[in-house]
Amino acid sequence: MQLQAFVALLSLLGAANATQDRHVRLGKRQNAGAVVGSSTTLLSSGLPTTTSFTSSATSISNSPVPTTPVGTTIPPLANITSGMATPSTVPVSATYSAGATPLISGAPVLPTPFVFQAASWPTQDQIAPTDSVEVSQWMEELDGFNIPDISPTADGTCVGDPAAASQAASRGWWTCGGYTRATDITSCPTKMTWGVSFDDGPGFYSMELLNYLASKNLTSTFFVIGSRIVERPQVLVEEYMAGHEIAVHTWSHRPLTMLTTAQVVAELGWARKAIKDVIGVTPTLMRPPFGDIDDRVRAISLAMGMVPVIWTSTGTGATFDTNDWKVPGGVVTGPQSFATFEAILGNATMLNTGFVVLEHDLYPQTVDLAIGYTLPAAMNFTPSLTLDSIGHCNGIPSTNLYRESNTNTSFPYANSTSGDSSVPSGSGGNGGSSATTSGALSNTIMPISMIVASLLAAGGSLM
To answer: How far apart, in whole angstroms, are the C-alpha atoms of residue 89 and residue 462?
Structure first.
């Protein structure tokens, strides 16, 4: 199946199943008593409608609870700067033992708690090497796919590679010109819906964010970095078991267009492996660091079973980036970042669709901005907004966000090999045909009649 058809198929599946999936999520939260978020629809008054929040998890603390943790005493907006005092952190609030059952239907139970052995992993925060057995296995996932012969950029920036920038349109290079493809997720389909996401964690301050999201009954998509996962695996477990969506954000957070094909595979593969080792599942969504993606990187990502997700851009070139990540470095201040977010909300009212915003949970400044300012502003915005995770707002069933529980037999593709004997090739864990695709970025778009026919023929297996 062509990639464009796959994205359309996901949307059709979700449109038919969105209400049912929402009810299932709420039902599981109520039955399990777990810390699970769900979409929150806001009344015209701006007040969120939520259900009661409970937790059956055992609370633990290896150190005294901080007296002034970030998120409990939010600094005045003017004080959120690169020079703000470093706040204390809140410890992980729940434990989940090996064998605990996640909320995703068909997903494996939690594996044995992760123990980091440095010798078994690439050097943290360095571009992952390509000379390992693991990378050789992951390279096989590209077999049979048409990976465009596009040379790497100099450094992933327009200024650093003006020759590549002049070819941005033909390259499909997002960094220079905001070029996207039909296979990219860049928004939520429904107007005034915010696809909430946070990048670069798990961070020291992610627990404060998780506690806030739980208190507001919200779910988010977390794009996590492999180098951070191995440092704070229990935080990733908390995010996943609370019902948030987990997606890949590479191993070392480098611009992907500047890397060789093997390096891109290594960056995606090691992050994917870290997630699998910690929570037992393999995400089918990814976000390129800095949004730096072109047709070559897209093809690699899709061949490896991951759909690219980027934040929204307007037709005039304005991107929905809060610039919160610039606050810790002193490039902008908290008030300037929040003003950018207010402009984003204003731009959102002029879109015919919903939107996706770039925010981060790695630094105290970005977490304070989120839970003290941007999220409350959105929940009290007029006209009212719906806050949701990105996969869910796009109607993708929660099972299809992870390869092991994926029930869409059209993805991952039939000729993909996971390098993991526990995941049958091209099956999403459910078996599949041996048919091959004709190329990851074919220009041929399957007619809508064929998509509907495929949907009807697949029937319950896709649901």
So the answer is: 42
Contact by Cβ (8 Å): 11, 78? no
Pick the catalytic residue: 295, 360, 368, 392? 360
199 is catalytic: yes
Residues found in the chain? 463
Nearest to 463 by CA among 404, 405, 393, 403: 405
CA angle, residues 309, 311, 317, in degrees to nearest 5:
130
Q: Reply yes or no on whether 244 is catalytic.
A: no
Q: Are 399 and 407 in contact, with CB atoms under 8 Å apart?
A: yes
Q: Are 177 and 300 in contact (CB under 8 A)?
A: no
Question: What is the tens place of the pLDDT at every residue in 298-348?
Answer: 999 999 999 999 999 987 778 999 999 999 999 999 999 999 999 999 999
Global pTM? 0.78
| Residue of 184, 199, 200, 277 with catalytic role | 199
Number of helical H runs and strand E runs in the chain: 14, 8
CA 265 to chain centre: 18
- Closest to 33 measured CA to CA, from 51, 17, 11, 46: 51
Helix or strand (DSSP H, E) at 208: helix 206-215
- Phi-psi category of residue 217: left, alpha or beta, with phi > 0 → left and psi -120 to 50 → alpha: left
Angle, helices 3-32 vs 448-458, to 10°: value is 40
Instruction: Quick: pLDDT tens for 141-164.
Output: 999 899 999 999 999 999 999 999
